[in-house]
Amino acid sequence: MKNSKISLLDLIGIGVGQIIGSGVMILTGIAVGKTGHGVTWAFIVAGIIVAITNLCLATLGSAIPANGGMYTYVRDLIGKKTGFFYVALLAAGQLVLANYAIGFSEYLKELVPSINVTLVSAIMMTIIFIVNLTGVKTAVKFQNLLVVVLVVSIGLFIFLGLPKINDFSPYMDITKVMPNGFSEFIAAIFLVRFSLVGAEYINEFGNDAKNPGKNIPLAMIISTIIVSIIYLGVGFVATGVLPIEEVAFKTLGSVAKEIFSQPVYYFFMVGGAMFAVASSLNAVFAWAPKGLKVAIEDGWLPEFLATENKAFGTPHYLLLIFYILGMIPILTGGTLEIIAVLGNNIGLIFAALPIVAVLFLPSRNKNAYENAYFKLPLWAMRVLPVLCLIVFAAGFYSNVDFIGPFGMKVLFGYCVIVAIYAKLREPYIKKS
Q1: Phi-psi category of residue 299: left, alpha or beta, with phi > 0 → left and psi -120 to 50 → alpha
Q2: Which of 275, 204, 180, 236 lies closest to 39, judged by CA?
Q3: Residue 304 CB contacts under 8 Å (≥ 6 apart), including other chains
Q4: pTM across the whole model
Q5: Residue 51 CA to chain centroid, in angstroms?
Q6: 16, 61, 148, 236: which sits with the fewest CB atoms below 10 Å from its CB?
Q7: Is CATH 1.20.1740.10 correct for 8-427?
Q8: Is 335 helix (H, G, I), strand (E, B) or coil?
Q9: Of 378, 325, 387, 402, which Cα lies nearest the Cα of 352?
Q10: Residue 316 CB: number of other CB atoms within 10 A?
Q11: pLDDT tier at 282, thresholds 50, 70, 90
């Protein structure tokens, strides 16, 4: 690799930037529409779910640090076909890139109502694509700049918004916490869970990181804690400053306008909201190609797709693939809610596979497990992954009705095609 190694601070920046994005800035309003003041509790429960998942994945990152981490864990601990199934679903799930670009445009539209959302989304996607073509270190520096500004902006949102909440009693009133019933509260939990995932993909930087066995799990844990605290504050302000009906299914812009002076409002909209979604978009471009690149090198897809740019050492064809995937929903008129729910459900499927790999780590790579800087006790290596899988299944089921029969048929059909291809291609795959 031509660039210098990524530090612990850089990894934390990637984690925070990947987590804070379209989720908190856009999906919070959707979750408010589903469960009112229950959003704050939904963030707490979702944070616990994500923390348990990350504890499992941090063990993998510490024991077997490698670029393309998640793919290699599934491939080596479960099997080659399952590894390709994972990476194929991961690639399809990056349709959610559009969510970040559209979210950026929706916030800009609140400042400049005359803009064309589709055009601005396409331009934003293109800019981030070009930034990542120039190398992972450049992308990380850009990421750190975005993260610093957005954390300051969201900090102001919380610091200036909390004093404007006059009544905290609704957060302890079951009729206010679950105004639309328990099922909608559960749906809100898994919706905001989507806004908390991201730190696990720090695992993808195993070969790029300094002291990865130590720094990867530390970065995952630290970035998740930082963002969970931030989101708790956002949940209170989002539901406590204005009447619920003025926030439901909307961005946080209306709340920001209520609590900020005009200059600070503009700073929040740009530095908080727009930088947040830009940072998530940038982080996905940085990590998403890594697993697919390793899969190609194993022989699953044509070798030329993994070709790296000689000047920057970046996989330009793979970045182009993810760029095209992200542009599809933008150009076809996909909405934020549809993209988020579909991406969340695809994500729950492929995210379950590394969790299954955790179960096999102590038996199939005993030395790596025993020598890991960070590891869970054996009982936790059995209990926590099973708990995660049950939760993932419940989350997938909670959104089946929203996706609808046609969406489920498309998703199932894609999975079948990938499984058949993996079966036919396996004899030609290199040995791990």
Answers
A1: left
A2: 236
A3: 317
A4: 0.78
A5: 14
A6: 148
A7: yes
A8: coil
A9: 387
A10: 17
A11: confident
Place of tokens 């089921």: 397
48, with CB counted inside 10 A (0-12, 13-18, 19+), is: middle
Q: Which conformational region is residue 301 in: left (phi greater than 0), alpha (psi within -120 to 50 degrees), or beta?
A: beta
Kindly give, in sequence order, each residue whose CB lies less than 8 Å from that of residue 98, ignoring residues fewer than 6 positions away: 121, 125, 326, 327, 328, 329, 330, 334, 339
Whole-number Å distance between alpha carbons of 241 and 159 = 13
Q: What are the extents of the domains in the chain?
A: 8-427
Tokens representing residue 60 in the block? 């993998």
pLDDT digits (tens, 9 = 90+) for 328-387: 889 888 666 677 667 777 888 888 999 999 999 999 999 999 998 888 899 999 999 999
* Residue bearing the bigger pLDDT, 395 or 158: 158
Cβ neighbours for 375, distance < 8 A, ≥ 6 positions apart: 59, 62, 63, 369
Give the whole-angstrom CA distance, residue 321 versus residue 97.
Answer: 12
pLDDT of residue 167: 93
Instruction: Provide the CA 377 distance to its chain's centre, in angstroms.
Output: 27
Distance CA 372, CA 296 (A): 28
The gap from C-alpha 422 to its chain's centroid, in whole angstroms, comes to: 26
Q: Which residues contact 174 (CB under 8 A, 6 or more apart)?
A: none
Helix axes 378-398, 400-425, angle to 10 degrees: 120
The tokens 């009729």 sit on which residue?
175
Number of Cβ within a 10 Å radius of residue 386: 13
Q: What is the pLDDT of residue 309?
A: 83
The residue assigned the tokens 């530090």 is 7
Q: What is the pLDDT of residue 140?
A: 66
In whole angstroms, give the CA distance from residue 17 to residue 109. 22
Long-range pairs for 248-257: beta carbons < 8 A, 24 or more residues apart: 248/29, 248/32, 248/33, 248/36, 249/29, 249/30, 249/32, 249/33, 250/29, 251/25, 251/26, 251/29, 251/106, 251/107, 251/110, 252/25, 252/28, 252/29, 252/157, 253/107, 253/110, 255/157, 255/161, 256/157
Report the C-alpha gap between 250 and 104 in whole angstroms: 14
Q: E-assigned strands of 208-260?
A: none
Write b or e for each residue in 192-228: b if 16 or more Cβ atoms lie within 10 A of its Cβ, otherwise e. bbbbbbbbbbbbbbbebbeebbbbbbbbbbbbbebbb
